[in-house]
């Protein structure tokens, strides 16, 4: 199954382009699921058919679905209270009724991630899943969430402690303090499995990202930000879709200034992104007829996955190089910190903690440089850890 994630600066027609792409794929015979993430039914307004928690058939081969964060949040908290009944009773805590619950911050992001997982694991899986993600900043935070939550879980409940949970009663008596209850480990394990399934969908080579932006100075800034943020997550835009492009030439003197501005931005993008242009219809697209009129790119071919390779220069100057593509990165805004077997990598406003490849864990950091949009980190083998040859 292929997954295409759409994001970009807010207000650039991202939902429209995502819907047009899904509709085009369905009409070419691809079983397509279109997932909306906006709490208001922007997707339904674009399609001309209301969408919500229950998947709705738009056309033959195309189903639209907008997960309801409120319902999932209530179900999750009710299930958590059931599992933690004993602990809540000991604390004298009053149970919350589902009717009084409102989603906490982050509930919508979790609902989207679960929708991705459910779509991938469904028995009647679709051939293509198109996801209308939030604007860039929120989308990047959402894509980072599974990896970061799994890391927090491993720190709070390390696997080695979970493996020794059969000894908890004995350890509790020896230490004189209560040990975590069984339900806590079971809940953590279940969350870890769910997050791992979502992380696998995001990291799958068949999952790609498409950026939608209007060709303007603000759009150019948004594309640079999105490209760098995606690169830090080992993702690269499969396509840059320049939306709402005005026709040329024009006799309207007021419109001529906008056309010239668009032309300048498109020329800049041509060198780095080869943008796909979608013409302005002269109106806001509404319904399947308008969506069909948009010349959006098809869903094939698939791009090559992004790689962070490690290359050896041991025979030359005795170092290993880790190559991390970071297009658009500024040398002065890069930040690197080695913490045990992890690397804290910062680029501008973005930050990620990544585990080191096994070979580099036996090395010390010897330096780094940014060369043509690629961060190259040098590692020197640690003589005490690196195997020697006889």
Strand order, largest beta sheet: 3-4-2-5-1-6-7-8
Number of strands: 15
Question: C-alpha Rg, in Å?
Answer: 25 Å
Return residue spans where pLDDT drops below 50 for at least 5 consecutive residues.
170-179
CATH superfamily of the largest domain: P-loop containing nucleotide triphosphate hydrolases
Count of individual helical segments: 12
CATH topology of the largest domain: Rossmann fold
User: What is the overall silhouette?
Assistant: globular
CATH class of the largest domain: Alpha Beta
Order of helices and strands: EHEHEEHHHEHHHHEHEHEHEEEEEEE
CATH architectural label of the largest domain: 3-Layer(aba) Sandwich
Helicity, in percent?
Answer: 25-40%
Protein traits:
15 strands; eight-stranded mixed sheet; 390 residues; 2 domains; Rossmann fold; 12 helices; Immunoglobulin-like; alpha/beta; four-stranded antiparallel sheet
Mind explaining what this structure looks like?
- By secondary structure, the protein is an alpha/beta fold.
- The chain folds into two domains: 2-68 and 104-293, Rossmann fold (3-Layer(aba) Sandwich); 310-381, Immunoglobulin-like, CATH 2.60.40.790.
- It has twelve helices and 15 strands.
- Strands 3-4-2-5-1-6-7-8 form an eight-stranded mixed sheet, sandwiched between helices.
Question: In brief, what are we looking at here?
Answer:
Helices cover 40% and strands 23% of the residues. With 390 residues, the chain is α/β, with parallel strands linked by helices.
